[in-house]
Amino acid sequence: MWKRPFLIAATMVLALTAWLPAMAGPPVRSTDAFPFTGPDFDHDLAIFVNTSRESFCSDAQVAFEQAVADWLQDGMQGPFPDDPAPPPTGDVALPVQFVETPNGVIATTRGVVDGLHMELWTLDDPADRLGIGACLDTDDANEMFASGTGTFRGGTTDYFGTVFGGEVARPSFIDHTQGRGVVTTPAGDRYDYSWFFHQHVPCDDGPGPRCEVATFRLRSVP
């Protein structure tokens, strides 16, 4: 993934925080119109789901990604840049479920949602990628590879630093998302495209959970 997880929009994190005081065992169900973006380095593409690049890459989002790039360039001095205000929002409100498990861990699950707008954009050349997010890593190429509709499914367990009952639930999280759709290039070529991201934070190179698993498939279809 990019240097900071962008799998869930800032609105998703705010929604979780807002629901915490009301949680008392049973699942709490809500909706959130969050966009999804992620890099596909196997095919040099950036994924946009439930949003378009034009919509996601607002002035506020671009400024945020640039601020993160500057912060990293300066040796991570000072606080991490504030999230974009307003944060990007998705086209469709997706179902969200918050769960309190017996040991106090917060988990969320999202069912399969079909018919979401999907775009694949060409990543910039490796020398021009800042490794920050979907906007700055596609602005030089500025080329949409294909667009269409597809499905999305994802879930997060153990939100990093989530406060529950006055204490941090666990200083880690596990996040996974997957999706599939049929996209068409501007020239009319059609592709079946699918992806799977799994991320575990924190982790290291030693024995234990892998930091990240990412698989992609791009297959030409009639």
Describe the structure.
The two termini are 31 Å apart. This protein is globular. It has three helices and eleven strands, in the order H-E-E-E-H-H-E-E-E-E-E-E-E-E. By secondary structure, it is mainly β. Residues 3-24 and 160-170 have low confidence and may be disordered.
List keywords for this structure.
two-stranded antiparallel ribbon, 3 helices, 222 residues, mainly beta
Radius of gyration over all CA atoms, rounded: 18 Å
Tally the helices: 3
Number of strands: 11
Report, as a whole number of angstroms, the end-to-end distance: 31 Å
Low-confidence stretches: 3-24, 160-170
Order of helices and strands: HEEEHHEEEEEEEE
Instruction: Tell the overall outline.
Output: globular
- The share of residues in helices is 10-25%
Q: Structural class from helices and strands?
A: mainly beta
Mean pLDDT score, rounded? 80
Percent strand: 35-45%
Biggest sheet record:
9 strands, antiparallel
Entry summary:
Helices cover 13% and strands 41% of the residues.
Q: What layout of secondary structure does this protein have?
A:
Layout: H1 10-19, E1 28-32, E2 36-40, E3 45-49, H2 53-56, H3 59-73, E4 94-100, E5 106-122, E6 144-157, E7 163-164, E8 167-168, E9 173-184, E10 190-201, E11 212-221
